[in-house]
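go over this record:
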Amino acid sequence: MKARVNELIDKLRLQPHPEGGFYSETYRSDIQIPDLNRQLMTSIYFLLTSDNVSKFHRIKSDEIWFFHEGSSLIVHTLSEEGHKENRVGLNLLQGETPQFLVEKETIFGSTVAEEDSYSLVSCVVAPGFDFQDFELFSSEQLEVLFPDDKEIISRLT
């Protein structure tokens, strides 16, 4: 597994992401949305290993996740309904989907489903991603809003 992860980091030119994991921007639209001062769309590769997590965060745009290889990825969302696990992968009989939409303003993070593994996905954000719209959360902030979900909050903050 480590050899494949290192190969992906090298060949896809991935760098550490502030939320956890590794990423590389692959596309940034030339089309600008004037009212938002954002590009129409952006895309990244995102690699997460099972000994790492993508911490709870939110952005101001919709984000679609596309599974490529490795273990399935669990996208954890927090909303008025509480914590939900959304499996992104190719095992359709087990409830996984090859793509998953995280709606704008949703608090989310992710984990790799299997131990000693990794997940490679792409993420497309529209309107385009800007770190100015990126908000990481502390456990204290989230536990006030979601007191029944302290275990996953502790793990992903």
Remarks:
- The mean pLDDT is 97.
- The longest helix spans residues 2-11.
